[in-house]
Amino acid sequence: MSSKKIGFWSVWALGVGGIVGGLFPALGVVIQIADAGAPLAFAIAGTIALITTYAYAKLSVAHPCRGGTVTFLNQAFGLGLFSGTLNLLLWFSYVVMLSFYLQAFGSYGISLFTASTQPIWKHLLISLAILGTTGLNLLTANYIGKSQIWIVSFKLGILILFIILGSSHIDFSHLQPASVSSLQSIFAGAMVIFLSYEGFELIANTAEDLVNPKYTLPRVYYSVIGFVILLYVLIALVTLGTEPIEQILAAKDYTLAEVAKPIMGQFGSVLMTIAALLSTLSASNATLYGSARFSSVIAKSRGFDGSEINGIDQSSIGLFITSGITLIIANFFDISRISTMGSAGFLLIFAAVNLANARMHRYTKSKQWISLLGVGICLVALGMLIWFALQTDPQTVWVLVFMLGIAIGIEVIYYLSNNRQLHL
Questions:
Q1: Contact, 72 vs 370, CB < 8 A?
Q2: What's the pLDDT tens digit per position in 237-267?
Q3: C-alpha distances in angstroms, 95 versus 30, 99, 295, 318?
Q4: What residues form DSSP beta bridges with 321?
Q5: Interhelix angle 368-392/183-192, nearest 10 degrees
Q6: DSSP type of residue 68
Q7: Residues 6+ apart with CB under 8 A from 107
């Protein structure tokens, strides 16, 4: 472990930076589903994330290491079919989240080009982004990490300026209270864009390098999620209050850049586009870094020693596999489907993390009922999301079933091929 320790604000910037990248693709999606109830949808999704941070904070203090979620699941449930399947599902969900960010990068990037060439530029930008971040991860991730606090400061500055200036442009007739009949769409919107809060999980990986993690980690977790909930709700309110719904949905893939025009002018719209590009690209790089090395962690937990294969180390192989799958999903899947798949995967993972903390509550010195509540809420939210997907896009549910089936299948094959006893 490095002797150089990091403090509260560095980790806070990492957490906020990892989450806010999800705002840019999620805003148009949630407005399309929840209409004027989008601010409430963001608040509901954030509340679920906030409850789950309790388990993460307790587990991170009890197990201060870079393994994060995989360590928590392995410690609570042992190395068996259950934890192995969830670890693989988490990796698949990382790939989906990475595709979510890259879709937003392409969508905001094409707003700088003429309409006739935008479809070509979108695929080109997505492909260049994943190839570029793959190259960066092969070389070094150090200088990207050092610039994280500056990137976060820039994009937060633009978003806060958007809120301040936009508050004077709000037309309250656009913000009619949501009727009871639309509560279903509000909850559905909250579940679909739950993925936009997922980045707080990155905080767990900093525990080894933190100054006084027992005191600092809980403060970071709760303040990051609280700040992001407030930020998301205010941005949704300004967006809905500034433009009619029809106009917002016409540009739902690059909503903030479009809404910034009447508030901040053309220059402000370009600034928002730059903030979106930096935000989604930095979030993509961090997610790719974590997911590629996460596959190496899974390999080591299954008995592989991390040595090279044909001259290529295992983390690089994981990087190439992750990038290749992401390249396909980001280019050929609809952003709403990507969001639904990712949100479903993470709701299931977070239910398991809450269960892990509930199971180890004496060791982590936790209130068991809070984590059991988290398990129930995550599973109910997952059920609502699947029900909504069955009503609107049943193919998305089959993709989730396929992801889960592949994860279980890989684990079963591993046990059978190594002549090991298959246990839960």
A1: no
A2: 999 999 888 888 888 888 999 999 999 998 9
A3: 21, 6, 11, 11
A4: none
A5: 110
A6: T
A7: 25, 122, 253, 254, 335
Distance CA(296)–CA(289), nearest Å, equals 11
Q: Residue 265, by phi and psi: left (phi above 0), alpha (psi -120 to 50) or beta? A: left
Tokens for 220, please give them.
Answer: 């970071």
Report the phi/psi class of residue 367: left, alpha or beta, with left for phi > 0 and alpha for psi in -120 to 50.
beta
Any residues with CB less than 8 A from the CB of 192 and at least 6 apart, and which? 29, 30, 33, 336, 339, 340, 343, 385, 388
| CA dihedral for 106, 191, 286, 153, sign (positive or negative) | positive
Q: What is the pTM of this model?
A: 0.86
Distance in angstroms (rounded) separating the CA atoms of residues 387 and 394 = 9
Q: Quick one: DSSP state of residue 346?
A: H
**The residue type at 273:** T
Q: Count CB-CB contacts under 10 A for residue 118.
A: 17
Question: Minimum mean pLDDT among 51-55, 138-142, 266-270, 364-368: which range?
Answer: 138-142
Whole-number pLDDT of residue 3: 47
Q: Which residues make Cβ contacts (< 8 Å) with residue 184, sequence separation at least 6?
A: none
Helix (H, G, I), strand (E, B) or coil at 420: coil
| Dihedral pair phi/psi, residue 313, rounded to 5° | -70, 160
Question: How many residues would you count in the chain?
Answer: 424
**What is residue 6's three-state secondary structure?**
strand
* Model pLDDT for residues 111-155, shown as the tens digit of each residue: 888 888 888 999 999 999 999 888 877 765 444 445 566 778 888
The closest of 125, 123, 145 to 136, measured between CA atoms, is 145
User: Token match 């044909």: residue?
Assistant: 310
pLDDT surpassing 90 at residue 163: yes
The amino acid at 375: V
